[in-house]
Each structure stands twice: as C-alpha cells, then as structure tokens.
Amino acid sequence: MLTFKLAIRNLFRNTRRTTLTAILISFSLIALIMADGLILGMKDLLVSSLTKNLVGEAQLHRKGFRDNFDVDLYFTGTDDLVADLRGRPEVTEVASRVLSGGMVSSSYNVATGMVFGIDAEAETRIGNIKKAIIEGQYLTGERGEIMLGRPMAELLEVSLGDRIVITLSEADGGDLSQALFRVSGIYYFGLREIDHNTVFINADQARQAVGISADASHELVMVFEDLSVSREKTSTVFDDFNNEQLELKSWMELNEDIATMLELSGLSTLVIGSILFLLASLGVINSMFMSIYERLYEFGVARAIGTTPWQLAQLILCEALLLGIGSCLFGGVIGYGLISYTTLHGLPLGEFEMSGIALSGNIATQMQLSQFTELPFYIILLTLVAALYPARFASKIVPTEALSRSL
Length: 407
Fold this sequence. Notes:
Blueprint: H1 2-11, H2 15-51, E1 58-62, H3 65-68, H4 78-86, E2 91-105, E3 110-118, H5 120-123, E4 133-136, E5 145-149, H6 150-156, E6 163-169, E7 176-187, H7 192-197, E8 198-202, H8 203-210, E9 219-224, H9 227-232, H10 237-240, E10 246-250, H11 251-254, H12 256-263, H13 265-294, H14 296-304, H15 309-345, E11 347-348, E12 352-354, E13 357-359, E14 362-363, H16 370-395, H17 399-403
Parallel strand pairs: 3-8, 5-7
Antiparallel strand pairs: 1-9, 1-10, 2-3, 2-6, 2-9, 4-7, 5-8, 6-7, 11-14, 12-13
Helix pairs in contact: 1-15, 2-13, 2-15, 2-16, 13-16, 15-16
C-alpha cells in the first residue's frame, strides 16, 4: 500500500507531464481500436463484395472449365444436382448458370464480354444482382431480356428498350449463333470486371443460344448457412462433389489474391500496433527518466536509510502500471464512442480500388470485445516493459552520488 500511495503521489507531482504521457498512451490505444475495427470492416466488405455478387460462397464446374471458360465443358443433370445440394442442411441456396464468351453489338458499337445465363429467381437469394439495378427492371423470365452494366451501355450507346445482338459460339461444334435482345435493365456493381464485361440473360435462352440441353449447365453457385463452412471447408459437400469430372471450389480458392490479403490482414494490425507502441514507449521512458532525475536526491536518501534497489524499481513499475491503467480507461471510453459511431455511420474514405474491387462511400467499422480486453492488456503490458529500463536505472542509484547532487 505504501508503494501504491507513493506511486499515485509521484504521478501527480508534475500533472502536466503525466497528462501528456497519458494522452500519448490513450491515443495509441484509440488508434489501435480504430485500425482494428477498420481492417475488420474492410475484410467484411471485401468478402461481401465477392460472395454477394457473382462468386457466391462456392462454385461447381466441370474440371478445367475455369481455365479458359470453354463452352464445351458443361455438365448435365442440373436438376438432380441442385436437388441434392438443396437437401443438405448446410446449403442455403443453389443456382445454375450458363456461361459463354460472346460479342455484344448495338447499332453504334461492339463490345466483347461474358454472357451469364442465370436462373433469375434463385439468383435473388444468392447475391445482389437485383439490388445492383439502377435503371429498368430485373429479369422476369420473358424471352429477349438482357441486363447490361452501365459502362458497357455507355460504350454501346444504348438505353432501356434498345436492341442488342449477341453472337455466341455453340457447344460441341463451335458454330456461331446469334440472338436478339432488348435492354431491360442497367446495373452497376462497382466492380470493373463485371460492369464493363458482363451481360445477364435468362438461363433457358442462354442454353438455346449455345446449343445445350435444358438440364445442362456450366456452373452451380451456392451459399451456405454459415460463411465459415466455405472458408474452412468443413462440409462433406466438398468431398462429395470433387471427383474425376467435377470440382467444387470455395470463394477463397476462386480468389486466391483476396484470400491471401485477408489472411495477412492480422499482420497489418500487428505492424500498426508495433509502430504505435514504439512511439508510446519512447514517451513513457522519457517521462519516467524526467521523474527520476527530479527525485534523484530523494532516491539517494531512500537508499541511504535502507531502501532496497528492488523497492525503488517496484515503485517505478507501479507508477508505470497506474499510468497504463488510467490511460487505457480513458482511451477505452473514447475508443468505444468513436468505433460505435463509425460502426453505425461508417468512415468516409472516398473511392479507391483494391484487387479489382471498387470500394466507395463509408466503410463501416466492426466492434469486437477483444478490442476492449486484449488491446488494453497489451498496452498496459508494453507500458510496463517500457518502464523496465528506467526502473533498472533507479535501482542502481548510488546514494553518495545522488546526495551530492542538488536539483
């Protein structure tokens, strides 16, 4: 208790210095909380941008299809495969797709891109295609409907109701076929690859255009009850549907660059934390040394009357502990208020692109319990580590040298 009382008294001997040091430590904790929340928010946004758009959480193809999207590599028995997958408790929804590269032409211009024949109703439960519509309407199943990205519509100089001709290569032969459509909807995902190079038509008409049967598809896309199923591949569905003909891949396998970025995101917090700790530790060391030099005569007297070196070191460490606890309490309250606000309203970071994904607007941070339990613990621990050097210096004070000084 005596050490505790002395530590409190010494901290308030120079209120200005203690306050500035506490603010430095507090701001380090606040910055860590906000950085961790922002990184988690960006991870969630990246994953959502992938899984809620076209990729889904897993995709089933013929082996080798994704190498060059060969229209000949399709599989039959789509209805049976969809029924099997939907019957599994971990699978929430499945949708079939027909994919083919093609030429999209209007009366004014020509563009090349990927043609997606989709099951319009099932896709609404898979991703955000319907939500991305900015003009016109979503596919209703009627013949001749087509949806274009806004950049492609601008390139082709078309608007709602204008005619579009798609030229495709037929499966099992390579003959060219053409089909006439009218623009029913214009969408905007904010993903360059989709907005500039992808069109959506109804799956039945896509099958007719590429010359495959009504139960054939190039791709099955699915979502699971829990995203961790696809992230960690805990479901037996991955074993059951990976064989000599078919391959089922999770969204992480389909986007290895994004997966690597997400796995390394924890390193970003560590790097930021290390830089902030270095700055905070320098402030703690400076504050402690200034305090020791101000009390050098007192320490000399204390050593002369029998105070042990460990007791002096203990006093310095107790001061650092109290400084760290007080700073983390203040920083935790401010950090909680800031991250609560940014979780609801987001951080206005403008527009930027990451791995081909355009991120714009406000990015919502994520708040977790560990930000207010683990991070303050590390800050307090590292504050104590920073105080070890000043404590060692204080424990080695020679009484005769200290008493000969007058401050």
